[in-house]
Amino acid sequence: MADIIQLLPDHVANQIAAGEVVQRPASVVKELLENAIDAESTLIKLIVKDAGKTLIQVIDDGKGMSVTDARLSFERHATSKIRSAEDLFSLHTKGFRGEALASIAAIAHVELKTKQEQDELGTQIEIEGSEVKSQEVVVTPKGTSISVKHLFFNIPARRNFLKSNNVELRHIIDEFHRVALAHPDIAFVMVHNGSESFNLPKSNYRQRVVNIFGGKTNEKLVPVEEKTEVLKISGFVGKPEFARKTKNEQFFFVNNRFIKSAYLNHAISSAFEGLLKDGSYPSYFLNLIVDPKTIDINIHPTKTEIKFDDEHTLYAILRSSVKHSLGQFNIAPVLDFDRDKNLDTPYNYEGKRTSNPTVEVDRFFNPFQEEKSSGKPGGISTSYKKEPAAQWESLYVGLESKGTKTNHEFSEVQFESEPENQSLFNDKTTIESSQRTYQLHNKYIISTIKSGMLIIDQHRAHQRVLYEGLLKHTTIKEAVSQQLLFPLELQFSSSEKELLKQLKEDLEHTGFVFSKFKGTSIEITGVPVNVPESEVSIILEQLISDVEQEVPDSNFSATDLLAKSLSKSLAIKAGQTLTNMEQEHLVNSLFACKEPSVSPTNRTTFITMSVDDFDKKFM
User: Fold this and answer.
1) What CA–CA distance (Å, rounded) separates 277 from 397?
2) Residues 6+ apart with CB under 8 A from 370
3) Handedness of CA 264, 266, 271, 272 (dihedral sign)
4) How do residues 467-493 score in pLDDT, each as one tens digit?
5) What angle do CA 100, 102, 103 make, to 5 degrees?
6) Is 382 inside a domain boundary?
7) Domain for residue 559, yes or no?
8) 541 — phi, psi (to 5°)?
9) Number of domains present in the structure of the chain
């Protein structure tokens, strides 16, 4: 039998490796930025076109590479970071496996320009699909510039799986944020389609957080500092009142490397227990410094998951540190047994003897005396003027003689009755019509039907009514808006502001009016008629969360997602009491919809129970 096992060609092996390392343009951004950091750069510039599908370029002012290093950097498992297997357990750099550049070069057109400080000329290499097209000497500044063009040009199936530009750009910005937050001592610039999105100067950690997420973030931050033999913690958590509907502001960094850890995230959530509303998530930007020998970061191709030797200890320290910071800065309620200084005895009363309080009464006081009396001790004089007896006694004169007449007058009083109107229905029908609906536990609306009983979920039913109404307004572009007396200014991060810009036109069709987008703030001068001003920020945050979770691509209707999100935010909630008129209006509106049986998220809005079902219960 012939042998069937063969060695894969290098270009095929590189494409397979690229499938693990490069999932989307954001993966390329992450690898290139980390390489620039390892090169000890002080300024890193990221240039992106068409959300990375056309161009991803990273320019740094780092050490650069020699001619030999530049050529070897595109070979698989070629790395300057490790020499032996033991080095894997004492890593202080980002990249170490030597797969990133080789994988990227296998699926894109790559151009590398690099020069070391002591060299007069640099090196330029062009590679297409793992094949070196040219290598020559070039004039270039110190550092490295690497351009990745036409990603997945030779794997059209992978390129078809990419989402819309808006979605891919959002992932790139997320990766940019993670790298920039981990290294506040490095200046970062990001340019997309010729316009500058971020310009982050070298700063401390607090300033870096504020520069990325907006000036209003500064007042939300609570510092967290802890140093133990096992773990060193530094960073910030957000105040509970500023908790968000999304998880966009949750960052863990272990030894300056962004990681995802559901276990450590639970430690933060437990520290905030009792301080957050349902559906809200705390913000945190925490740096954890541990011994590199106690972690394994090589368990995932993207290196975003880390295995700790002793997770339980880290959990306890992290939870305690966050709770301590919340209590230290009076964020969390604490029991305070310190005495109140206001209750202390003043210094000028120290040494004085206390005297018993006395109550003195004027025993000779008579309010009916005409003359003034000053018999009160202490020299306080009071005066009362006696009214003549004839004035008050005359009020009762003749009452006895008029008693019988008064009774006679009241016996002849007649009450004017309302005119009787003939009702179209008899009394029985009127009573039944006034009690056609009932509300159960402020959650369900119960109504009788010919075959039995109808039970409606008021929240889901109202969602369906609002959803179809919003779709209609957005489609015909005739939504009614109410102008605000004072413009409403809201703060969002740069990525959230860009997302709202994309949804601006659809939001305006629902009734929102935006006056300007300036920096990280958005000014709103009009809102839909049924939206209270106090809930505008909550509604927009929920909208951002829904858009990011559902990740609409080019084949997905943004209008439909917008209507779903707004209907979920504006619908009446379980626990809200409705009058009989409101109940009937909701029932009538529901059954006037095109799809009354399900909510916008395809959940049942009502159920029916027939008389037979009740009969079976009593058998």
Assistant:
1) 71
2) 385, 386
3) positive
4) 988 888 777 766 778 888 888 888 887
5) 65
6) no
7) yes
8) -65, -40
9) 3
Q: Evaluate whether residue 501 is within a structural domain.
A: yes
How far apart are the C-alpha atoms of 250 and 236, rounded to whole Å? 10
Query: Within 358-476, where are the H helices?
Result: 389-393, 399-411, 427-434, 458-476
Q: Which helix (H) or strand (E) holds 178?
A: helix 165-182
> Confidence band (pLDDT; 50, 70, 90) for 72?
confident
**Identity at 535, one-letter amino acid code:** E
Confidence label for 373 from pLDDT (cuts 50, 70 and 90): very low
User: CA angle 400-404-406, nearest 5°?
Assistant: 95
CA distances from 209 to 202, 203, 412, 493, 510 (A): 12, 10, 85, 10, 33
Q: Are residues 195 and 233 in the same domain?
A: no
> Is the CA virtual torsion 411, 413, 414, 415 positive or negative?
negative
Question: pLDDT-based confidence at 416, cuts 50/70/90?
Answer: low
Residue with tokens 């006895």: 400
Cα distance between residue 527 and residue 520, in whole Å: 20
On whether both 176 and 292 belong to a single domain, the answer is no
Distance of CA 602 to the CA centre of its chain: 25
SS (H, E, C) 51-62: HHCCEEEEEECC
In DSSP terms, 213 is beta-bridged to: none
29 and 56 in contact (C-beta within 8 Å)? yes
Residue 489 · residue 523 · CB < 8 Å = yes
Residue 144 φ/ψ region, left for φ over 0, alpha for ψ in the -120 to 50 degree band, beta for the rest:
beta
Report helix angle 165-182 to 25-38, nearest 10.
Answer: 20
Q: Is there a contact between 123 and 108 (Cβ–Cβ < 8 Å)?
A: no
Q: CA 479, CA 476: separation in Å to the nearest integer?
A: 8
Cβ atoms of 510 and 500 within 8 Å: the answer is: no
What is the spatial distance between Cα 68 and Cα 126, in angstroms, rounded to a whole number?
15
In this structure, what DSSP letter does residue 453 have?
Answer: E
Q: What is the SS3 assignment for 616?
A: helix
pLDDT per position as a tens digit, 585-607 = 999 999 999 999 999 888 999 99
End-of-domain residue from the set 328, 346, 367: 328
Measured CA distances, 450 to 435, 440, 457, 610 (Å): 15, 20, 20, 9
Same domain, 191 and 214: no
CB 15: neighbour CB atoms within 10 A? 21
